[in-house]
Specification:
heterodimer, A: 423 residues, MetI-like fold, two-stranded antiparallel sheet, 2 strands, flat, B: 380 residues, alpha+beta, Rossmann fold, OB fold (Dihydrolipoamide Acetyltransferase, E2P), six-stranded mixed sheet, five-stranded mixed barrel, 19 strands
């Protein structure tokens, strides 16, 4: 310390410091080191999340709006269509450019890319592209490419085919996102609903939400009393019950779902029991339909409702109920006015958790549902693995993500975001 | 207020009440207790003595396994808590965190379905009574501990219950605030003419506030009396040791009449003591003497008993000095001596003679030396 002693001693409230560096700076440095250490500890997880979560989601979102493959295969055609009005067939130049592009594409073995991409938009264009690519044109013997091309395949005489080419010029497109919402942009640029026989995704989206909402309600109704029991029993009993709640977590999802097949099938335990009791005279259809989906999903998701509820209820001390009854409230009123409002953060967290998990469900509906019970994830999986239409799969994924985020925003607005208590 | 014709009748009567949780051990062994209208009764005792169970049975949260409880002469043993019309203040306040202060206070009136304007007026009055008029729109979490406890008081009083129960309501507050709230509760009791049953394990709180104190131990009321009677005239060794500071001296009764007995202490000295809780010559007894009733100046008027010993330790405490004296027989005894600049201070190692009056030395039931330490440690 730089104490000078005697009369020249510094005033008592001055901050003393060793060496030349002011104390403030040294404190700040120490704080920075502490922060860096903390960051270093979370960095591996951060990198892991970045690589496995943020990057794939960003990639998916990009795929739902990116559209660059066609313009690589048909560069001249796209250039020729820049000034096209989209109302009548394009001019001779566009037909000529298409014929040239496809001849080149055939040589490069890339015609199939254009064929697949254009077929997403207008069905039948796959064969139109492939037949045109295989057809040799002699420039000298072809007075009108327009007539010649239409002669090879009649689709090229349709404005829609050319609209599809121009719509797919990239690098960005709204085609997949519009498709995911059952919308279509025609050659002139107007957006309209697709015909009823082709519209499926809005129905699927509505079904996904409906099933998720019902499952969430079932979970709440079934989980609330269990959570209450867990929170109010002495630890010895509560621990035993908790193991029963957690038991499903230790079993594979596939095994649990398959177990429901065994239980609910026509010769399953439930039907056998009902037949034996004489309540029914022929087996009820309990699986491969909506009943199976709801039962199995509720079962699988129940712990996600019970755990947040339990943790909230555990923090509500019994003296609140005692106080309410001592103040003259009958038990039912005390429950509704004192206990339930304090459970709300747990109810909100449980419902949100179950609902968000439910709208992404794939395996369970796929195994125990019928054709009309498939949820959005089923179609995403279908487009990724079966039809290799990653753009549409990504767009459906983006719609799901958007719907979830929107819901969360509304929900946290209603409940007050900070009040949501996760587990 | 109800039933003026029953003015003589106690407000609450416990008769032959027992309570056991497991069917084997009794938490409350035998309880006969009358609580008078308008009195401030404190149930005092160490934890596990049955005082809280007694309060919970009165509130209706526990059911006696035997006997019955009457409120205004009417048996309430099977009345559920919400129909008893008893106000209650809890140790942790139990204010509803999702309601404002005003909503908390309005709660008992709303469940009684009072008209809105009456509720508003009564809430305002109750908050005024605890000097929290301006805090109605706050949440309980925004208040200090003392303010929260005042809200809990207002809420328990707003529906004008015949009886208010308080379960260690000041336990969570610091010492200064606790003393302040003690006075506040006492003043509310006097002003509103409330009947209060108050549970605490803090003897100074009990002595400060109460008209009567019931000292619980082992599921039984050891003594129920005014604070001064409890301190001056404890009827057994537990009360003597639990209330205030106390010296215990063990010995054997050698002679006794109606009021006085002669006791031969274990070191051989003979003292005369007031006969309180001894029944036969030859029986063991424990003498109880308060530290301030032992005099070091031997000429003290009326102090006929004498003991000699050696000063072991002195502790200076401003207004008095505590002197720890080792008696000839080996027992340790504490003496409070007045301190002052003109007074000599005893020094460790000094030989000392102590004198005390017969009536200040009470012959009580015998306690084993180990037990004494236990009983002593609970009286803080």
């Amino acid at each position: 310390m730089n104490l000078q002693g005697g009369a020249s001693a510094p005033p008592a409230d001055r901050v003393l410091s060793d060496g030349d560096v002011p104390l403030k700076v040294r404190l700040r440095r120490a704080e920075r080191v502490r922060k860096m250490t903390a960051f270093g500890l979370v960095a591996p997880l951060l990198v892991f999340l970045l690589l496995t979560f943020v990057v794939p989601i960003a990639g998916m979102l990009w795929r739902s709006v990116g559209d660059s493959e066609l313009s690589k295969v048909l560069p001249r055609t796209e250039a020729a269509l820049v000034t096209w009005d989209g109302k009548s067939l394009p001019g001779e130049a566009a037909f000529h450019a298409l014929a040239d592009d496809l001849a080149q594409a055939r040589a490069d073995d890339t015609a199939v890319i254009a064929a697949r991409r254009l077929n997403y938009d207008v069905s039948g264009l796959h064969s139109a592209v492939m037949s045109l690519a295989r057809h040799p044109f002699d420039p000298a013997a072809t007075p009108s490419y327009r007539d010649a091309v239409i002669a090879v395949n009649h689709h090229w005489g349709d404005v829609a085919a050319w609209g599809a080419i121009r719509h797919a010029r990239g690098p960005l497109t709204d085609f997949y996102l519009l498709s995911a919402l059952d919308l279509h942009q025609d050659a002139s640029g107007a957006i309209h609903r697709v015909s009823a026989d082709r519209a499926i995704y809005l129905d699927v989206l509505a079904r996904t939400f409906r099933i998720s909402l019902t499952v969430t309600l079932f979970c709440l109704v079934l989980g609330f009393p269990v959570a209450y029991l867990l929170a109010t029993q002495p630890p010895k009993i509560a621990n035993g019950l908790m193991i029963l709640v957690l038991l499903p977590f230790w079993t594979s999802l596939l095994v649990r779902t398959a177990a429901w097949v065994v239980v609910l099938q026509d010769q399953g335990i439930v039907n056998d029991l009902l037949l034996w009791l004489g309540i029914i005279d022929h087996p009820l259809r309990l699986i491969y339909n909506a009943i199976g989906v709801h039962v199995a999903m509720t079962h699988v998701l129940l712990p996600f409702m019970i755990l947040p509820l339990y943790s909230t209820m555990k923090s509500i001390k019994p003296h609140f109920m005692r106080a309410a009854t001592s103040l003259g409230a009958p038990p039912s009123v005390a429950f509704l006015r004192v206990y339930l409002p304090q459970c709300l953060p747990g109810i909100a967290a449980g419902c949100l958790l179950v609902f968000i998990l439910a709208i992404g469900y794939y395996i369970t509906p796929a195994l125990v549902g019928g054709a009309s019970d498939q949820m959005l994830s089923y179609f995403i999986a279908f487009f990724i693995t079966d039809s290799v239409n990653w753009g549409l799969a990504s767009a459906l994924g983006a719609v799901l993500l958007g719907a979830t985020l929107l819901l969360y925003a509304v929900y946290s607005k209603l409940v007050g975001g900070t009040d949501i208590k996760m587990g | 207020m109800v039933a003026e014709q029953n003015e003589q009748q106690p407000l609450v009567q416990f008769s032959q009440v027992q309570k056991s949780y497991d069917g084997e051990t009794l938490v409350v062994k035998h309880l006969d207790l009358d609580i008078q209208r308008g009195e401030f009764l404190t149930l005092l005792g160490p934890s596990g003595s049955g005082k809280t169970t007694t309060l919970m049975m009165l509130a209706g949260f526990e059911v006696p396994t035997h006997g019955d409880i009457r409120l205004n002469g009417r048996a309430i043993t099977s009345t559920p808590p919400h129909k008893r019309n008893i106000g209650m203040v809890f140790q942790n306040y139990a204010l509803f965190p999702h309601m404002t202060v005003a909503q908390n206070v309005a709660f008992p009136l709303e469940v009684r379905k009072l008209p809105k304007d009456q509720i508003a007026a009564k809430v305002q009055k109750a908050l005024g009574m605890v000097r929290l008029d301006a805090f109605g729109q706050r949440r309980p979490a925004q208040l200090s501990g003392g303010q929260q406890q005042r809200v809990a008081l207002a809420r328990a009083l707003v529906f004008e219950p015949e009886l208010v129960l308080m379960d260690e309501p000041l336990g969570a507050l610091d010492k200064q605030l606790r003393e302040h709230m003690q006075m506040e509760i006492k003043h509310l009791h006097d002003k509103l003419g409330l009947t209060v049953v108050y549970v605490t394990h803090d003897q100074s709180e009990a002595l400060t506030m109460s008209d009567r104190v019931a000292v619980f131990n082992d599921g039984v009321i050891q003594q129920i009396d005014s604070p001064s009677a409890l301190y001056e005239k404890p009827r057994n060794s537990f009360v003597a040791n639990f209330i205030g500071e106390n010296n215990n001296l063990n010995g054997e009764v050698v002679e006794m009449d109606q009021e006085v007995c002669a006791v031969r202490l274990d070191d051989g000295s003979l003292v005369r003591a007031a006969r309180i809780n001894v029944h036969a010559v030859g029986a063991r007894t424990t003498l109880s003497i308060r530290p301030e009733r032992l005099y070091v100046d031997q000429e003290h008027e009326g102090a006929t008993n004498q003991l000699s010993g050696q000063v072991e330790e002195t502790i200076y405490l401003g207004d008095h000095i505590r002197v720890v004296v080792r008696l000839a027989g080996g027992d340790q005894i504490m003496v409070k001596v007045q301190a002052g600049p003109h007074l000599a201070m005893p020094r460790p190692g000094d030989a000392i003679r102590l004198a005390f009056r017969t009536e200040d030395c009470r012959a009580l039931n015998p306690v084993a030396a180990g037990k004494m330490a236990d009983a002593g440690s609970t009286s803080h």
